[in-house]
Amino acid sequence: MLAPEVQVSDHTSIDRALDVLRGSHTEFVLIRDDTGRCAGIVTRDQLADHGAKPWYAENTRVRDIAHDHSPFARPGIPAADVAADMRERSLAALPVVDDDGFALGIVTATRLQTVLAASAGGTTEQP
User: Fold this and answer.
1) 46-67 confidence digits (pLDDT tens)
2) Cβ atoms within 10 A of the Cβ of 81, count?
3) How far is CA 20 from the centre of its chain?
4) Could you tell me if 97 and 103 are in contact, meaning their C-beta atoms sit under 8 angstroms apart?
5) For FRET with 72, which of 23, 40, 42, 87 sits at 20 to 30 Å CA-CA?
6) CA pair distance 102, 88, nearest whole angstrom
7) Which residues contact residue 116 at a Cβ distance below 8 angstroms, ignoring those fewer than 6 apart?
8) Number of neighbours of residue 49 by Cβ within 10 angstroms
9) Three-state DSSP class for 39?
């Protein structure tokens, strides 16, 4: 699991979120609502698709194009179950939230593949 280092408010415009991603050199950004809880995730590719239209990017909020709104992963869910859910929903990344909905981190499909391969080889590792 990666730390949720880059987060923006769900009121953030697409062009501003793109600026944040470019500055942070990350591939996705978590979206939080007014209470600070996780409201979704958007990827660089998603933002870039919408950012190509400047008039749209200035006036559209990230909450309107969020990659995923829920359900999110929770601590203690087996990595195989999270991987299956992500495959079923065609997700590259999924937020991990606590019982109150606050982001703890992000699980990526690549990281899950590594964890599952390691566990198949006899070692145990957390996503």
Assistant:
1) 888 876 776 666 788 888 887 6
2) 10
3) 14
4) yes
5) 23
6) 24
7) 79, 80, 83
8) 12
9) strand
